[in-house]
Automatic annotation (TrEMBL), chain A:
One of its GO terms (molecular function) is iron ion binding. The keyword Transit peptide does not apply. The keyword Oxidoreductase applies. Residues 11-115 form the Aldehyde oxidase/xanthine dehydrogenase a/b hammerhead domain. It comes from Nonomuraea maritima. PANTHER family: ALDEHYDE OXIDASE 1-RELATED, XANTHINE DEHYDROGENASE. It comes from the Bacteria. Keywords: Molybdenum, Oxidoreductase. InterPro entries: Ald_Oxase/Xan_DH_a/b, Ald_Oxase/Xan_DH_a/b_sf, Ald_Oxase/xanthine_DH-like, AldOxase/xan_DH_MoCoBD1, AldOxase/xan_DH_MoCoBD2, AldOxase/xan_DH_Mopterin-bd_sf. This is Xanthine dehydrogenase YagR molybdenum-binding subunit. SUPFAM superfamilies: CO dehydrogenase molybdoprotein N-domain-like, Molybdenum cofactor-binding domain.
From TrEMBL, chain B:
Coiled coil: none annotated. One of its GO terms (molecular function) is 2 iron, 2 sulfur cluster binding. Pathway: Alkaloid degradation; nicotine degradation. Residues 1-77 form the 2Fe-2S ferredoxin-type domain. The keyword Transferase does not apply. It comes from the Bacteria. Gene3D superfamilies: 3.10.20.30, [2Fe-2S]-binding domain. The keyword Iron applies. PANTHER family: OXIDOREDUCTASE WITH IRON-SULFUR SUBUNIT, OXIDOREDUCTASE, IRON-SULPHUR BINDING SUBUNIT-RELATED-RELATED. This is Xanthine dehydrogenase YagT iron-sulfur-binding subunit. Keywords: 2Fe-2S, Iron, Iron-sulfur, Metal-binding, Oxidoreductase. InterPro entries: 2Fe-2S-bd (IPR002888), 2Fe-2S-bd_dom_sf (IPR036884), 2Fe-2S_ferredoxin-like_sf (IPR036010), 2Fe-2S_ferredoxin-type (IPR001041), 2Fe2S_fd_BS (IPR006058), Aldehyde_Oxdr_Iron-Sulfur (IPR052914), Beta-grasp_dom_sf (IPR012675).
Length: 677, 162
């Protein structure tokens, strides 16, 4: 089925957060800290306030009232302490965007700076063990004796991989329009991946009951995690609107997005693998070093995929975190799995070479019967099927494993493989389904469509549950006044909302008029299983021996992700994730400014994401799985697995092409050329 | 200052701040939200419109500098209820996900169809290469899509270019 909102999106009529026509709207523009650590001495707004159209300047000189519960990145202008360079320290409200921006440049902020520390190191004295890692998983796990396993191994690989700061960079900048009514109720048009949660957090920060706040996000221009929780622009718009008594629009610039909307933490990952003469793992250890800010703890679950991938008698995973004078990292597509599987799947390739085995066969001999760290049975797992099907399509049996020997003129050619995985979870959701007077069906759920095709997928699900034509089903989402629902995140959206929609439709069928559902109890009753999607990615690369440029000439993903609800949407999700994975492998990197703090490369001319010319032959296929332990649809989430494993497959192909193993992403031409000297 | 320009075939006269970009004029003053602001620096292509039929980045054009010229935004591509062939092909090929880059992709593609001559990837500069997938990928690389719909964008444009 084509996307339901396709027509409004191609005609320019789809309304994103910044685009609602609101009467009397004025504009807020932020002022950012120029130091990485210290105290604000004073904010001199006199010159700005005298400029044309300026209505107010907000800052810590006269902190706008927020609830005591407001903390971290959302506690705007409450403290004079600066936590990182780029933090919002003031904002100008003016009649037009041009006036607000010009006046923001005229706000003078004086600082008492302190020495800052923005550098992640594996030997940083401030490293500590967080209580849990995102989203509430154990920080460390240990099973068996890793040292004994390594001592007994025929082959040992000990390697360190590093990944840089990465930025989500959805095409739509974070934006909010806030409107207060005469009774003190707040309406926010926001860029939110979930309006229920967004409403709850905004209400808590502003000290309002949740029923006095409404968040609307009918169309969201991508998020990839960065719109999973409210960002400062929503609080700024609400505070500014309250201060000037008019609706306020706050839209972050692309540069400001780099500073205050989250990013993927850089990681340093140490892995130790031991294998016996047949390639069976005797020990596997994965330790990740990561950063967070001094404002909030965010601990990415980087080593967690290693807990579920391969059979081994000795398995240890650990995470260590250091709080630096940096912005708070957050969710970016497949937090944990994307960087963690890059390191694990690269190390598995190294082990295959060290043991003289084919990398697919190495993975097959280490296929576990149950989830290695928990001992739970898998609800379904078909990694081997994905590897075999990909090998067939990629003609893997014709591959010569020798690295650095295939030449086509200046180009060195190689192929690589890596596994993908992502948890298949669901969260409680509510939904409502009613028969309208015209005979059609209305389905309501506070879901979000951030480009996943949620409207379309939920229409298919509801039509199936009702046994009617999809044309007769109308799905309403993107509004916190609708039945409460979890965020579009963790690849849980369709599974969570879809479960509630099916139950509401079932009740409607028996009731005839209306069905309401809340899946809290149903999900509490779910049996104990390890639930994950799996996949295998295959890459062919061409590496220029002259310039060091890497071109991905072919990328194939084979996935086993339960029942695929909509093949067209699913393919787009898979290849979209793989395309982002290609960016992670070859070009994406935000540099940290060691001298002054904050980030360098804060725009799309310097932070390179894949462009049309970078993406040639990218294809995704899937093996249909029947898994009754998931949800009524039998589906596993597919929004994130596409980015998991891509960077390893490409890195492994670069090794096969060149004979050089590059262990720091991204694999840039400079690193390729330097590896030869 | 007061300027007049043709927007989607209609003369529009507006009193503008000389600092305002064409993009902000369309979005904030004329209620045309189709052209998107993705970076405001000419780096992403989301704001692409047609200026006298040629594709242009509206975030890099001052409104006062395009006085008297004809601007076509994505809202002006369709003829009434009939979608432009590119719009229909984008829907059929699922050539977008979040939709935020889509208006720029469509205007850029519409402009590209009328741009003859070689590009950086053309092998033989003496012959018209035609809009092969390689040529489309090269010529559409000024329009970023973070959802990664490029494969489908190229197939949608190829269908129309054929």
């Amino acid at each position: 089925m084509n996307r339901i909102e396709g027509r409004v999106k191609v005609t320019g009529l789809a309304t994103y957060a910044a685009e609602y026509p609101v009467e009397g709207l004025v504009h807020a523009f932020p002022v950012q800290s120029q130091i990485a650590k210290g105290r604000i001495r004073q904010v001199d707004a006199a010159q700005a306030l005298a400029m044309p159209g300026v209505l107010a300047v907000l800052s810590s000189e006269d902190p706008p009232e927020l609830a005591a519960a407001a903390s971290g990145e959302l506690a705007l202008f409450q403290s004079r302490e600066v936590a990182y360079r780029g933090q919002l320290v003031a904002a100008v409200v003016a009649d037009t965007l041009d006036n607000a921006r010009a006046a923001a440049a005229a706000v003078r902020v004086g600082y008492d700076p302190d020495d800052h520390d923005v550098s992640l190191r594996a030997d940083h004295p401030g490293l500590y063990k967080p209580d849990t890692v995102n989203p509430g998983l154990p920080t460390d796990t240990e099973k068996g004796d890793v040292e004994a396993g390594l001592a007994a191994a025929a082959t040992v690989v000990e390697v360190t991989y590093a990944t840089p700061v990465l930025h989500n960079n959805p095409m739509e900048p974070h934006a909010a329009i806030a409107c207060w009514d005469d009774e003190g109720r707040l309406l926010v048009y926001d860029t939110a991946q979930g309006t229920t949660w967004s409403r709850d957090i905004l209400a808590r920060v502003l000290g309002l009951p949740a029923d006095r706040v409404r968040v609307v996000s009918r169309h969201v221009g991508g998020g990839f995690g960065s719109k999973g929780t409210p960002r400062p622009q929503a609080v700024l718009a609400a505070l500014a609107a309250r201060a000037v008594g008019r609706p306020v629009k706050a839209v972050l610039t692309r540069q400001q997005m780099f500073d205050v909307t989250g990013y993927r933490t850089p990681t340093i990952q140490r892995l130790r693998l031991g294998a016996d003469a047949e390639g069976r793992l005797t020990a596997l250890e994965h330790v990740a070093y990561e950063q967070s800010s001094t404002l909030e703890e965010f601990a990415e679950q980087t080593a967690t995929p290693t807990r579920i991938m391969y059979a081994t008698p000795a398995l240890r995973t650990a995470h260590r975190l250091v709080r630096l004078d940096v912005a708070t990292p957050s969710w970016m597509r497949a937090p944990g799995e994307a960087p963690g599987m890059y390191a694990l799947e690269s190390a598995m390739d190294e082990l295959a070479y060290a043991a003289g085995m084919d990398p697919i066969e190495l993975r097959v001999v280490n296929e576990p019967d149950t989830e290695p760290h928990s001992g739970l049975p898998y609800s379904s797992r078909d990694l081997v099927g994905c590897l075999r099907e990909g090998a067939r399509r990629f003609e893997w049996e014709r591959r010569d494993p020798a690295p650095g020997v295939r030449r086509d003129g200046e180009w060195l050619v190689g192929t690589g493989v890596a596994a993908s995985t992502y948890p298949a979870r669901r969260r409680p959701s509510r939904a409502r389904a009613v028969r309208r007077e015209d005979g059609d069906y209305l389905v309501q759920v506070a879901a979000a469509d951030i480009g996943t095709g949620a409207r379309t997928a939920l229409t298919t699900i509801a039509a199936g549950a009702l046994g009617v034509d999809p044309d007769q089903v109308h799905v309403e989402l993107g509004d916190s006044d609708l039945p409460a629902a979890p965020v579009a995140g963790g690849s849980m959206g369709t599974a969570s909302w879809g479960s509630a929609v099916v139950r509401a439709c079932e009740e409607l069928k028996s009731d005839g008029r209306e069905g309401v559902a809340d899946t809290t109890e149903e999900i509490e009753g779910d049996a104990q299983f390890a639930r994950h999607a799996f996949g295998a990615q295959f890459a062919e690369v061409r590496v220029s021996s002259v310039t060091g440029e890497v071109r991905v000439s072919r990328l194939l993903g084979v996935f086993a992700a339960g029942h695929i609800i909509d093949p067209q949407l699913a393919r787009s999700q898979f290849i979209g994730g793989m395309t982002m994975g290609m960016g992670m492998a070859l070009m994406e990197e935000t540099l940290t400014d060691e001298e002054f703090g904050g980030f360098l490369r804060r725009d799309l001319a310097q932070y390179h994401v894949p462009a049309c010319a970078d993406v040639r032959d990218v294809e995704a296929v899937w093996l249909d799985e029947r898994d009754v332990e998931l949800n009524p649809m039998g589906s596993k989430g597919i929004g994130e697995i596409g980015i998991v494993g891509t960077a390893a497959a490409i890195g492994n192909a670069v090794f096969h092409a060149t004979g050089h193993r590059l262990r720091e992403l991204p694999i840039t031409p400079a690193k390729i050329l330097m590896s030869r000297f | 200052m007061e300027i007049t320009l043709q927007v989607n075939g209609k003369a529009r006269t507006v009193d503008v701040d000389p600092r305002i970009s064409l993009l902000d004029l369309l979005r904030e003053r004329l209620g045309l939200i189709g052209a998107k602001k993705g970076c405001d620096h000419g780096q992403c292509g989301a704001c692409t419109v047609l200026l006298d039929g040629r594709r242009a980045l509206s975030c890099l054009a001052l409104a006062v500098a395009v006085e008297g010229r004809a601007v076509t935004t994505v809202e002006g591509l369709a003829s009434g209820d009939d979608l432009h062939p590119l719009q229909a092909a984008f829907i059929e090929h699922d050539a977008f996900q979040c939709g935020y880059c889509t208006p720029g992709q469509l205007c850029s593609a519409a402009g590209m169809l009328d741009e003859p001559g070689p590009s950086a990837v053309t092998e033989d500069l003496r012959t018209d290469p035609g809009l092969t997938p390689d040529e489309i990928r090269e010529r559409m690389s000024g329009n970023l899509c973070r959802c990664g719909a490029y494969v489908n964008i190229v197939s949608a444009i190829s269908e129309v270019a054929r």
